[in-house]
Amino acid sequence: MNRHLVLVPGFGGFDALGTLRYYEGVTGVLVRTPLVLHYFPNLPTASVSTRAEQLLAFLHERWRRNELRPGDEIHLVGHSTGGLDLRQLLLRYRELEQSSDRSGDGAALEVLRHIRSVQFLSTPHRGTNLAAQMSHPLIRALLIRPLLRIGYETVRGLRERGTALSGHLLRGVLFRGRRLESANWIDAFLDTLQASYSREGAYPSALARASYFELLRWLLHMASDSSALSDLNPTRLGNAPPSPAHEDHPESERRFLDEHGIRYASIVTVARPKTGRRLDLFNQLYSLTADSPVARLGQAQAVQKLMDPRSARMLTPADNDGLVNTVSQVWPDAASSYLVEADHADVIGHFQADTREDSRGSLKRYDLLNSSSGFDALAFEALWTRIAAFVEGRAYHEDVKTHRPTSRASMPIDAHL
Questions:
Q1: Domains of the chain: which residue ranges?
Q2: Is the pLDDT of residue 313 over 60?
Q3: pTM of the model
């Protein structure tokens, strides 16, 4: 019997793009476990419904190829919008179960019978205030879509060598020969452009060419379908397809999980803005996400800390991890949720810059949001060790060394970080 852990990326999702791997360092932490890891290459910005259909097909194909076998267990982890994909996948399974015509659905339902747990990581279960700011029809029609289309057409027109050269030129203009203190999303972007072309031999050239076409495909997907923005808006917009983020009553979803013996939990993340740096990107994102959050994102409540299970923190609707309001990540309730002090990208491994000098064209770690959360390598290992322990049937608050539960009684509640 094998335990399969399927990791689903979020908004803009991919497995690896240029020099950037979505889940960075997870394999290194879990290499000592018997888990079989699967990294799902998601559609970047398609609707949650479309992404969930692709995930269903992905699992079905793994079953058809005997990668998943009778007696195996399937465990799912979804980061950010990937968590909504998981909820939509389970809703789809419920529809298939209730359908009077199950012809052709046997394999899909067989996969369902092997799902044993689902974990949500920084998931905007009721949307995020940041998406509400970006989902205005004029912003999407006049800014987001044209920029994505321009990006795609530019990379397509420049081809491999021109794209790589543009990365070199932009780096020189932006940094003037200096690198940032901590490699963030700008470095990830420039490194990915530069990785589109290589003259170092046949094999590196082939890898660079593949990287270029993967970048081109990713940009085309994003320029063609940005429906996920509607799914992440706390309020359903117009004729947008239904999203789990717009479901206010999780009781039926919880009942379905319980009936099928599927364990579930949410890991919620919170960070804080940097002091004295108003123009910092993370501070700007934090402020937009915190600005006048709508009531349906969630109410103020106390959530137990994952790393310090004897204490909890009182969260307000404005608290967030730079992209998602933390109260929106609490699902289906506070008793099933655990708090980690980290920004939105820290928990997927991008909490610090890769210090290697010569890593051009190879996968790297970036501090994508470059917040002041304090999340580090020890916290990352502790987090993913607990995720693996949950897969093995243990609770988050169970000591991973002694296997003894930690009491939640009389937990002190912190008002601030």
A1: 3-130+248-414, 134-228
A2: yes
A3: 0.92
